Amino acid sequence: MKTISIRQLRTCFIVLFLLQSVNSYAQQRITVSQISSANKWTDSVLNTMSVDQRIGQLFVVTAYSNRDYNHVRQITELVRDYKIGGVMFASGGPVRQALLTNYFQSQANVPLMISMDAEWGLSMRLDSTMNFPRESTLGAIQDDQLIYKLGLEIARQLRRMGIHMSFSPDADINNNPWNPVINERSFGQDKRMVARKSVLYMQGLQDGGVIACAKHFPGHGDTDQDSHQTLPIINKNKALMDSVELFPFKELITTGVTAIMVGHLAVPAYDASGMPASLSYLANSSLLQRQLNFKGLVVTDALSMKGVSTGIAPSDLALKAFLAGNDILLSSDYIPGGIAEIKKAINRKQISIEDVNLRVKKILAAKFALGLNHYKPIVLKNLLTDLNTPDAKNLNRELVKNAITLFRNTNDVLPIKKLDNQKIAAISIGSELDNSFLNTLKRYAPVKTFAMRMWAETKDFDSLLNNLRGYNTVIIGLHDVGTSSTDNYSISETARTFIYKLSQQTKVVFSVFGNPYCLTNFDYLSPVVIGFEDNTLNRSLAAQAIFGGIGVKGKLPVDVGVSCKKGEGVTTQPIRLEYALPESVGIHSADLSRIDSIAMDGITKKAYPGCVVLVAKDGKVFYEKAFGYHTFDRLQPEKTDDVFDLASVTKIAATTQGVMKLVENGSVDLNKTFGTYVPKARNYDKSNILIKDLMTHQAGLTPYIPFYRYISAADWSADSSAAFPTRVAEHYYMRKGYFEKVMLPEMLASKLKTPGKYEYSDLSMYFMQQVLENVTGQPLENYVMNTFYKPLGLTTMGYNPRNRLPLNRIVPTEDDKYFRKQLVHGDVHDQGAAMTGGVAGHAGLFSDANDLTVLMQMDLNGGEYGGQRYLRPETLEKFTVYNDPFVSRRGLGFDKPEVDLKERSFGATAKDASDETFGHTGFTGTCVWVDPKTNLIYVFLSNRVNSSSENNKLGSMGIRPKIHQVVYDALKKAEGSAVSN
Q: Which EC number applies (predicted)?
C-alpha cells in the first residue's frame, strides 16, 4: 500500500487552495425516484469497477477537519486505495473542511458523497457557522413554513460546503422525558406534529439539492438509554410501534424521503432475537423496505457506536449490516476488514454479486442526482460570508422568535405594561452579568440587574434575596440548564430554594433557557417564558417578549409534569419596539452599507468625532450603529447607548409633547393668546401672540438673544450657594432669579418683527415653557418626565443628565473658549438654556438614540405605546401636518420636509421623505425624522460642536439627509425586488 508524506499533503492543499476559482454547480431537487432509477452514467461507472471497488462504495468513513496529518493520511488511503463511497465529516471548521473535501475528492476515482450530521445546520459540527435552533425549539413553532425554509437554507449551506447528505431530520417522537440522547433533538411528543415538521424539513433539504436521511428508524424516542453507549430496548407492542413510533417515518416515506437511517435499537416487536434494528433483516429489509415500501438509501447509524459494536468485530459488523439490508455502512471502525468479509461472503454465495450491484447502483444513482458526474471543487473565496448571510441570520432570528413560549400568564402579567409604578429587578442565574437577556431588558425600562452562579452558596443567595426587597417585580433568567433528569437538569438545590423564597417575597417573571422538562421544579411559578436554548439570540428575544417587543406565539412541544400539556401556550401581541435585522423589514443589509461609509466620511473629514445612527421601521429597530469616539482625541469609543445633547430636538421631544397633551385635555387652546396663560406677558406686545403662532415660528419674534454676552461678574460665582444656585457648568453658577429678573423680561421686551411671517426663533419655546409650567403648576422637566418619559420606560431622556447618569455615558459638546472656558460635559451646550439651569423649552434635553426612538414611535403609533395611551391620534395629526404650506414648511412645534420638492433635495430631510414626515434637527448635530407613510423613524446623534461650534461640516457635507436618503433608497430597492419576485 502506497503511503503519503506530510510534505505531499501540504503541497496538495496549497495547490488546491490556489486553484479555487470555479463556481459551485447548480443545485436541483433530489427525489427518491432518482435514487431508485438507473442511468447510463451509473451503469458505465459500475462496469469499470472491480468487486472490491464496488464493495468500497458501500462504506462511509468519519473524518475530522481539526485533526493532524496522520488522520488525513488514513482517510486518504481509504479513499484512494479502498475506493470508499463517501466521507462523513465530524467536528472542525468550514475552511479546513472545504480544503479537505477538495483534497479527498481529488484522490477519488468516483466522486465521494460527502455527508454530515447537520440536524441544526453546520454548527452541529463546525465552528464559525450559523447556530440554528434544535428540533425541540422548532417543535414550539406554529408557522410550519419556517421549518421548510430552514431545511432549504441548511441545504444551501451544505451544498456551499460540498456536502450532499444530511443525517436529518430526527423523526423520533420525544415521548420519554428521561431519554438521554433524543430529548432536544426531537420536534416533540405529538406524532402528527413530529411527522409534519419532519416532512417539511426533509422537503426543504431535498428541494435544496441535499439528500435528507431521516432517523432513527424505527423510533428512538421511548427509551432511557443512549445507543452511543449501550443497546436500548424499545419494549412496546407492535400495535403501539406501528401507530406511534413508525408514524413519522411512514409519512416521510409517502412524501418522498430519499434516505433513512436505521438505529441501534432492540425492538422485540419486530425482531424477538434482540438484534439491533440496524443489523436486523426483519426490521430493515422486511419492515422498512418491503412492508413500508421504502425505495431510497438505507443507512446504518454509526457502526462505531457501542450500542451495536460491543462484542462484535468491526469487519463482522459490516457484513451483518449488509446482510440486514443496509445500502450505506456508516463509520465502520475497520473498513478494509469489512470489505474483505463482504467479499468472502460473496465468494461463499452468502451474498450475491447482483445484490451488491443493486445497492451500488442506488449509491451511484444518488451521486448522479447530486451532480457528481460533473463534480466541481468547493470555491473557497467568500466561504464564511456565504455561510453566514444576513438572510440566514434573519431566518434564524424568525425561528427563535416564533418558538418563544409563554404559559401560566395569570392576570396577563406579560407583556409588562405600566412601568411608572413598578420597581423592577432582573437576575441571571448561571450566567454572567453582561449578557443579552439582562442588557435587552434594560432597553425597555429602568431595570436593576444582578447575576449569580448556579452553584453559589446559600449565604450568597440569601444576600441577594435581601437586596431584592423593595422590588415589586423580579425577572429571573435561568441559564446553563442541562438536558438530563438524572442530575435535575444541572439546577442546584440552592438555586431552587432561592427561586421559591423569592416567589414568596415578590412577583416573579420566570424565564428558562434550556430543557422545558426542568420546569417540573417550578410548577408554582407564573408567568413562565421558555427560551429553549441558552445563547445570545434566545436570551435577547425572551427579554423582548417579556416587555412586548415581540409577540409570543410558541406552544409547548412536550408535556411538562402534570400541569403543563403539549400544545399549551399563551399568545401575546407586540406593544413596544422590537430589535431586529434589516431583512426583517424587507431591506437587504448590504443596501445600508452606504450609511457606514457616509458616517465614517464625516469622522475622517472631522465633521464630528463620533455619531450614532438608528433606523426603525414598522416598530422594528433594524439598524443601530455607533461610529468614532466621544472626542477627537479618540480616547473613548462611541457606543449606541451613549447620551447626547439633543439641542433643538428638545422642542419636539419635550415642549411640543407637553403642549399636545395640554391642548388635548383642553388646558391650552391654540387659538388663544400667550397672555391668556402667562400674566407676566400682559404688559408687553407679546401678550396678544397666538399660541399656534408661537408653535409655528410665525409670531415675529427675534430669532435669538445672546444673553451670555451680557453677564457681569456679579451675576455668577465659581461656587454653588443659596445666592448662586443655578449650575451652568463646572465651577459656574448663576445668581438666583436671573432668568425671571433678567432673561424673561428682556425676551418679553424684545422688538417684535412681522407677525404671521415665518422666522425661526428660540424665544417661542422659551415662551411655551412658561405656558406649560403656568398651566400645569410643574416645572417642565417634571411634567414631561412624569407624563411621558417614566411611563414609556425611558432611562436616559431628560434634563441635566449628570444628576442621573455616569458622566462617561454622556458625550461632551464644545470646548467653550468664549463663555464657560471649559469642555462642556454633562451640561447643556446652549448658552441660554445653560443659564436657566439646564432646563428650557428650546434646548436642554439629553437622550440616547433608543429613548428618542421610543418617544417618536409613540407619536408614530398615534399616541399609544406599551399598552398605554398618551395622546390621541387626531392630536398627533393636527400637530404634524403642514400648518400653512404657503407660509412655511412647519407643523405645530414639528419641523417638516421642504414644501417645494425641488428644494427638498437641499433640505434637512431625505429628498424622498414623504409630506407626512415630521421631526426636527438640533444645533449640536442631531436630528430625528418620522415618516408615517413608510412607518420609518430615523435618528442621527452627533456632537459636531466638539471641539468648536463654528465647525459646520456636518451641514455643508449634508451628512444627515444623505444617510436618511440611503434608507429610502434601500426601501425602494426592496419594494422593487418584492414586486419582481
A: 3.2.1.52
Vertex 323 angle, CA 321 and 328, to 5°:
45
Nearest to 609 by CA among 874, 914, 942, 861: 942
Which of 62, 52, 53, 38 shows the shortest CA–CA distance to 110? 53
Amino acid (one-letter) located at 563:
S
Could you list the beta-strand ranges (E) of 827-935: 845-847, 864-865, 868-869, 918-922, 926-931
* Secondary structure E strands in 817-861: 822-823, 845-847
CA count, 13 A, side-chain hemisphere, 238: 6
State the Cα torsion 489-493-496-502 to the nearest 10°. -160
pLDDT along the chain (981 residues), means of 10: 50 47 59 88 96 98 97 98 98 98 98 98 98 97 98 98 98 85 88 98 98 96 73 91 97 98 95 95 98 98 85 89 98 96 97 97 97 97 98 99 97 96 97 98 98 98 97 98 90 98 98 95 96 98 99 96 89 99 98 99 99 99 99 98 99 99 99 98 97 98 95 97 98 98 98 94 98 99 99 99 98 97 98 98 99 99 98 99 96 97 91 98 99 99 96 98 98 80 55
Task: Count CA atoms closer than 13 A to 578's CA, side-chain side.
Answer: 23
Residue 595 within a domain:
no
For 280, the 3-state DSSP assignment is coil
DSSP element (H, E) containing 316:
helix 314-324
Distance CA 586, CA 979 (A): 12
* Strand 610-617 versus strand 620-628 pairing type: antiparallel
- Phi, psi at residue 805, to the nearest 5°? -130, 155
Q: What are phi and psi of 158, to 5 degrees?
A: -65, -45
Roughly what angle, to the nearest 10 degrees, separates helices 145-160 and 390-403?
Answer: 150
Do 179 and 305 reside in the same domain of the chain? yes
CATH number at residue 775: 3.40.710.10
Query: Could you tell me which of 953, 199, 927 has the C-alpha nearest to residue 609?
Result: 953
Report yes or no on 7 lying in a domain. no
The burial class, CB within 10 Å (0-12 / 13-18 / 19+), for 702 is: middle
The DSSP result for 435-450, as a single string, is: -HHHHHHTTTS-EEEE
Alpha-carbon gap, residue 116 to 302, rounded angstroms: 12
Q: Which residue has the cell 455615558?
A: 809
In a domain? residue 460: yes
- Give Cα separations from 763 to 176, 708, 744, 760, 843 (angstroms): 73, 15, 9, 9, 11
Q: Based on the structure, what is the number of domains in the chain?
A: 3
| Dist CA 96 CA 88 (whole Å) | 14
C-alpha grid cell, residue 830: 446652549
- In the 8-state DSSP scheme, what is residue 940? E
Beta strand residue intervals within 56-210, DSSP E? 59-63, 86-89, 113-116, 165-166
Domain enclosing residue 713, as ranges:
633-911
Enter the C-alpha cell of residue 597: 461609509
Q: The CATH number of the domain where 422 resides is what? A: 3.40.50.1700
